[in-house]
User: Fold this.
Amino acid sequence: MASENLSLEEMARRVSAARAATEARGETFYQGASRVHLAAFPPKERWDDWVELSSRAWPARRERRYMLVPTTCFNCESACGLLAYVDRESGQVRKFEGNPEHPGSRGRNCAKGPATINQVTDPDRILYPLRRSGPRGSGGWERISWDEALDALAARIRAAITEGRQNEIMVHIGRPGEDGYTERVLASWGVDGHNSHTNVCSSGGRAGFQFWMGIDRPSPDHAHAKVIYLISAHLESGHYFNPHAQRITQARENGAKVIVVDTRLSNTASHADYWLSPRPGSEAAINLAIARHLIVTRRYDRAFVRRWWNWAEYLTACHPGVPVTFEAFEAILAGLYAEFTFEFAAAESGIDAGTLAAVAEVVAGAGTRFACHSWRSAAAGNLGGWQVSRTLFLISALLGAVATEGGTFPNAWNKFVPQPIHVPPHPGVWQELSWPLEYPLAQNEMSFLLPHFLADGRGRLDTYFIRVYNPVWTNPDGLSWMEVLTDEDKVGCFVALTPTWSESAYFADYVLPMGHGSERHDTHSYEQYDGQWVALRQPVLRAVRERLGETVTDTRQVNPGEVWEENEFWIELSWRIDPDGSLGIRQYHESRARPGEKLTVDEYYGWMFAHSVPGLPERAAAEGLDPLQWMRRYGAFEVTRGQGALHEQEVPAAELADTRVSPLGRVYSSAAPLPGPNIVPLGAPEPDEVGRRPVGVIVDGVARRGFPTPSGRLEFWSSTLAAWGWPEHALPGYIRSHVHPGNLAPDQVVLLSTFRLPTQVHTRSANAKWLDELAHTNPVWIHPADAARFGIGATGDLVRVDTEIGHFVARAWMTEGIRPGVVACSHHMGRWRLDGGPRGAGGLTTTVGLHRGSGGWIMERHAPAGPYESADPDSRRIWWSDTGVHQNLTFAVHPDPVSGMHCWHQAVRIRPAAPDDRHGDIAVDTRRAREVYRRWLAQARPAGRVSPDGTRRPRWLMRPLKPAAEAFALPAAGPEDR
Ligand code: SF4
Assistant:
């Protein structure tokens, strides 16, 4: 019988039918121990005492009793709700399933959610604070107390702050987990030390959206769309994977068409109505051909374009002799994209013009129900990749499908960030190691250039923290990272806050154990539909103990070993940095209820939920709970639903008192406070309006909220790009990629190195044994035509892939799911540990040797993954040995000169492996990596040359941790060429 994809509703209907049939036969239908049929989620009223049958006791019906406690999955950025099933007898978590009360994930999870139990019970996890006992990277460790670690770190940080070396402190974060907690801690220290992974992830995608709407992420209303256009592997593994995938599925059930632009036949592409497999880097040309089609056939939303695009600003700036009328703009628009015919896009992309025309017709028919998304994928792969998302949003903006039902919203309208109990001021310093002058428009910190900046002598780090981050493994050019992390002159003290061993933690001075998703506190909210929710990640055993009437004052009291959580760690560390409060730091980590005492996480979140989440206190009170108790019990709260077109909201009359209006209609008020905690700060003051806050924009004579851009409108033409050195790219356009065919040698192909596997995420999921069994290797996808061309025989053969700075050796996988001229390799695999080092990610770790050869670093496999002895008998059952190859080590850095994004795609040569090559071999010349870095750096247009106003960066652009206004000033004696 063919398998069926059943909705939960259909499953429930069938169970009901089976029940009726069983009862009609006079037999007893067993509904499940809790008397709720198996197709339903446990109703929240039964979460204190949920009963299930023990599967191990089968066929006996032995019942097990659970307390169900919500938390949030931490295995990707989607933040799906989980329910921990805590055994009432043992007091231990037995499994994780979905939380039906979570508005984003609605009870559903991908494989990685339930696998949280593997991480919790991982026999290789780090349980106690460790300090290295030999030279850095020698593998010697000693167990120390938390007090020893805290005192040592506090002393260093205090000294750096009091000696004016604030820029020698850096906290480098992979996955934040919480909106703004660490930024707030660093601000309280007066340190501009936040670093992120975003420029190796999503900066390209973000920049394109930000230049349009002042907000850097799209929020497609997939569920109500007529056409869904994805430049990503969304259904399979893309951004907000499970919450979006279930809504895309919902839309498809209602007849929506799905268009997927992906060079690789991903699982997502295999579900598409239209799969476009373009040459990498040509995606923006396709988008522009579709946009041109909408323009020349006049099937764009004229009213929307007239009201909301900044066409008047564009005409004023770029066409001074032309009357500033919409008709004049339309006449210019009609010719702007003349070259982007379907034939041109076909020549660039390799997709035939007829197919592109057919897709454009489907798009044209979507009207305002056109939902789109692009995130990593092409925007993260190519030089100029940010124009992929900018041209994608051009289609939405032409259709008027912005903040409409079934359209695409600015993400901040579908996200809720509550105010914390204390808000420290912006730090007064500027961290040039993260925000260098060369990249004034960089979307985020230039994190992946840090080793090169340290090697250049631009600064040093006294104390460098990493958390949920593995820079040696995750970044390109990881061996340059290793070189600086082992150099104590460049990095004085290296601290890894981590639950597990990693390629980077091995080189740390302190390894401090932090909790997994069910062992820590965070709040978070993500744009997953047209609504806003806020959720609490929590240590579930702490919640259980409190539900049973016990008092828990420190999360270490319930976590395994001495595993802690970062929030309590940061509070404690801040107190030790400033024990008497004289540095002004301690005040931001003190209790409000008990002045002079330490802030607790209960007070922190209790205050937040009571004071800055509208509706939550009332909802909690209706059940006799306080807001924190309510959140601990249910995990997530929907704040609003159906936000709609916030840009159309009229500015209240009270806010219009004492306003001034610019010639182009931007309305400024001198009233400093924002109207509410969840209103996104509006855009930039124009130069003559500094100090006054924009509150709206005049549209057809009415002051409306508008968008948080400098103009208050959607910026078809970006005054920021024009003024900051990139006038030729101020309109949505097409930049030929560094891997465009014109930039490749005849024997080169493009390597796509960015795609995810649905059952692994970076380094966080590797310690989950179920996931390791599902996915543990990353062969190189090769089209049979390329295999024949390069003499590669069959699937499984070893191939050598030569990059700019070295090579890697991997197995070939022949497939027609990749276009000829392109090869692909997932970035998840190739985890390694140095021979003699800690085991790390058990089922995914290869043991390697690393040494310097005449041409640079050589990494060779000493032992493959395989069965091993541990407290978990499953570790003796590992049946696989191939754990793939760590290709990122062989990639040089490619900073996009505008967005700052690392452009991941590689121009490579492939050939059959040499007789002495072994699977997983790596060779890297870090001197060549330095040359490539300098070559790409030379493409930048530094603020010292292009800044129009003497600042380092446009103040309206987002920064995770924004310094005070005075820190934006260009340094007086700054190097002219930077
Ligand atoms: S890993 Fe899966 S379950 Fe967890 S947050 Fe991401 S999509 Fe949701």
Q: What stands out?
A: The chain has a mean pLDDT of 93.
